[in-house]
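Entry details:
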Amino acid sequence: MTLKQDLVRDHAVLQENRQARRYFAKFETILSHLPRVAAEMEQSGRLTRLELDAVAAHLSGLNHTFRALSHKYLMTGRDTGVFLGSLTVDRSASGFPVLQELLSMASDAAQSVGHLQRIPDPDTLKEAMIAAIVGERRIPTDLQYAMSQRLYHDELLQGDMFWPRNDAQLRGAAGDPMRVSIDWSAWDGQRNLPVIWIMEAEDAGRRPLSADFARWERVQGHLMAQALPELKLLTVAKGFDDDFEDIHPKRLTRLTVGPMYSSAYTLQTEGLGEVMAAARAPAGQDWALAWTLETLVSERVLSQKAGWFSSVDKQVWSLPDLAAQDSGATRTERAAILPEPVFQALAETSPPGFAGVVKYVVGDGRLWRVG
């Protein structure tokens, strides 16, 4: 693989067409497994039903983002007479595209209508390709590039993307008008990883939060400002509890998707180099994806005075041991999602650091949990 490496930030540019296509095919496979992993976590009590719905929505956006980028870079390395650009990935910290790729995509989305007005529809482009192949006896790389950009901007206009910042969304709990779920997400620019946040709360306002636009705008602004990876869940939950007297957070969850490890695209860490070498997995199965779920749960409510004649409810958060107190989360589950050949190599080599990691093994349409 031809890599143009940034020695300062350890990013790599995928400049060959075959390697770029394999990269996107790999992520298409990986992302296809994640909804089932999330569903298994809901069945085992690690996620609530509201959290599962929120995670599924953000994973759908992530899938559409990769699909759009695969169209954008479909002609990487092909001679079309113009420089097409190349996908930049973070090969040391994440295996995902760098934040700048998503920022560029967001800028492209703002101009998609204009692009689509200038590019013919797919059927017209296909007819022109056939005419070039049959009549002119040439490979129509220029038309193929136009088609890739047409598909790219079509995907952007459909929406449902994972953008650099994804504003908070409000979801209600069936049968409980006071119970709400708020989810938001962001692309962590330091680690180049997608991060999903979900907060379940009790809404004690005079009007439902969904109908109180002024209060909802304050909530959105507050939560989006807290979408920072370095903040502990406890810090975010306490700050929200202090700022909103009529919305009581009961559960806060943060899901970090990645890093992705693959011997073809990333520098191996934490003993995975040995595992990948031992696995000798076929193309499409030489990967592993980390998946970290942090959860903070309120264990009780403490009533505090707020003046001479009033009081407010404050949450007392469950931090059962020193590890929880240090992390600021009731529990943290580190997991790895991996194909069967990589799991077998992991079991045989037993590298240090994986004893407490839950393994979700995927293969042949199956999913099973180990640990």
Remarks:
- The first strand starts at residue 3 and ends at 6.
- The radius of gyration is 23 Å.
- The chain has a mean pLDDT of 89.
- The first helix runs from residue 17 to 43.
